[in-house]
Amino acid sequence: MTNIRITYSGLITFLISLSNIIPGIFFTIIITRNLSLQEFGTWGLIMSFVSYVLILDPIVSYWATREIARGGKSGKTAFVSNGFFSLIGMIAYIIIISIIGPNTDANQTVLWYGLLLIPSMFINKVLSAINLGWKPHVTSYGLITIGISQVPLAFIFVYVLQMGVVGVIVSVTIANILSNVVLSIYAYEKIKNEFQIKFFKKWIRLFWIPTFPGIVSLIPILDIALFAVITGSVEGIAFWSSAFVLSIIITNLASISRATYPKLLQDNEKFNIKENISHMFYFAFPLLAFVLVFGRPALFLFNPIYEIAFPILVFQAIHVFFSAIAGVFQFLLMGVEKIDMDKNSKIKDYLKSKLFFVPSVLLIQYVMYIGIISILFTLNSDIPQIDLIFYWSIIFAITQIPFTVYFYFVLKKNGFILLDKKRIIKYLTSSLVVFGLLFLLMESTLEYVENIFEFVPNLLIYALIGLGGYLVITLGIDKNTRILASAILNEIRK
Known about the structure:
The protein is an all-alpha fold. It has 23 helices and no strands.
């Protein structure tokens, strides 16, 4: 069993995740500037279909993290088993595109190329789960490998060879394979053991526990397919996807607390969670502000036609902000649950556990969300798509906020002390002041030019002003920030 360092692993993961933003944006620029609206919408539809079949992954990955964090030798069994489930996932993907694909205007031939993504993604998921159980920060190495490698790959296959969506698929597939190589190196110690059928039998016997939240998580991502089927077009998905690429930058804030999950699995001690959550909010507010302030110019940078999606981005960013925080709360709840350590636990015991409680609450949230947007799409399918997507984004945000608040109160009831309100107010105020002023400055001075080699340097200057200003102010007014900065510098010296 490995002694997991919460702050160290969290900061390493977070900083690497942040550094991955830049190659991610360049990758998006390449594909948005070289794909038509319909092609980019098709890519978004393919990724939603792949997400559907990935619900099979937790059958293995879910238990791999929990067992390895507790010293179990299930690495090779998990690796081999997930390879088997990827084959089932490919069959499921074929069924999905055969049923849904013909009801959209997506290129049906291109949809079939999505099969290439599935095996590499399944393997990537299980290797990340194995590493999460004993070296949480290593998962970020896999992510940055994908981020960095897919940029030159996209340049070759999408820009130079003009392969369109197929080029994007090939680029992402190869990037995942390279990531798998990196993750395999770090996970080797855990996957060199023998294949043990007892683990596989256990996972199959208890498959419903991770599959239930997997099915639940499938519900909200039905939104893209619903939109495509009801409107009969994938062009609107292009606007939604272009904005969402920026919104998901905010999910990086959850990486600060990623190591708390395996740490709780190891010893079940409610260590200084309050400090860890404060670190999360220190980065959460400037990340949200950054996305909102730079959202419009970033969409213009992707392709000027996507600039009108900025109002959609605003509500998407609000949703992702609260969703990322809720995700941390959910992991804390599941991390202290020990029901799976008792070999005598029965189905009724699992049904009463937090492993079942968390996805049950999410089920209510997601059914509510899908129900509302289904009515929205059906009753308003004839209005301009950009307006329909804007209403969609509002519902996206509104249905998330109350459930994040609910999980917070559940954690308090379970004895977690989470919020240092004074520090959080400092971070919020600093973000509002710095990025509020920056927004006013950009509105009056930033020139929107289509040449990216002129536009990007200007954006980078503003970005450095915003992030630097936030850092200077928080270092000046908050002692804990100075302590955190000192700890980071000490780690760098080591």
